[in-house]
Amino acid sequence: MRSESVPAPDAGDHLVDPLQDDPRLPTLFGASWPAVQGFHGLLRDQGVLRGLVGPREVARLWERHLVNSAAVVPFLPETGRIVDVGSGAGLPGVVVAAMRPDAEVVLLEPMERRTDWLSEVVDTLGLDNARVLRGRAEDQIGLLEADAVTARAVAALDKLYGWTLPLLRVGGRLVALKGGRAADEAVAAEATGVRLGGGAARILEAPTAPGLESTSVVVVERTSRGTAPAPTPVSRGTESRSRRARRSTKGPRA
């Protein structure tokens, strides 16, 4: 009989990630491998405790989360500014920052506990090209302009367009990781995309490592400013403090 003072082991505790020590991973991540491997360790050790991933996700961090995040990188510019909207645990933003070292990567996240986590990750991994910004995407319109925006598991495209397309310069692109409903969402969001200056949505296969399942990305270029009125900026957001921050400011909570 189990003592009530001793918690039962979590159902995911005994599971082992099938891609742990897989030789395909260093090849996939290339020069960013040390940083991505370090990020995996942080998520494995602290992700559940800090409410960033579910217990069962620990055994699926590589393929379901980190490799999946890497799938967006070939569709992103090598330089310029990339904004990861709703960065959460740092997926895909931290992986993007590691794999695009010559780009400025903004990890935009409204929840303070998550921006605290992101700041710790950026510091620990030494990602000097990444900065953490606490705030909502819609409040950054007119204040933050990007060459590319990424998003993963944030919202349906109809809503996501409203948050992301106005952040893009004309000629910039949204690259969103999407699942099996991508085509239906693209059709439902077409009018919103046109109103915000977005071109036709392209649903593209995004391969990862040989033998691993590919994923889908939705790529939308901003071809014009559109006809939607620009909202009045509400807040500049708060750039998260960190020990290494070069531009640390304190602002109102978003």
Main sheet overview: 8 strands, mixed
Shape designation: globular
Residue-averaged pLDDT: 87
Please, how many helices? 8
Order of helices and strands, N to C? HHHEHEHEEHEHHEEE
**Reading side by side through the largest sheet, how are the strands ordered?**
6-7-5-4-1-2-3-8
Q: Percent range for helical residues?
A: 25-40%
Number of beta strands: 8
Rg calc: 19 Å
Query: In angstroms, what separates the terminal alpha carbons?
Result: 49 Å
Task: Identify low-pLDDT runs.
Answer: 1-13, 242-254
Approximate strand percentage: 15-25%
Structure description:
The protein has 254 residues and is of the alpha/beta class. The chain has helices spanning 24-29, 33-46, 61-70, 93-99, 112-125, 157-164, 182-188, 190-195, and strands at residues 81-85, 104-109, 130-134, 146-152, 168-178, 202-206, 215-221, 238-239. It has an eight-stranded mixed sheet with strand order 6-7-5-4-1-2-3-8, with helices on both faces. α5 (112-125) links the parallel β2 and β3. The radius of gyration is 19 Å and the shape is globular. The termini are far apart.
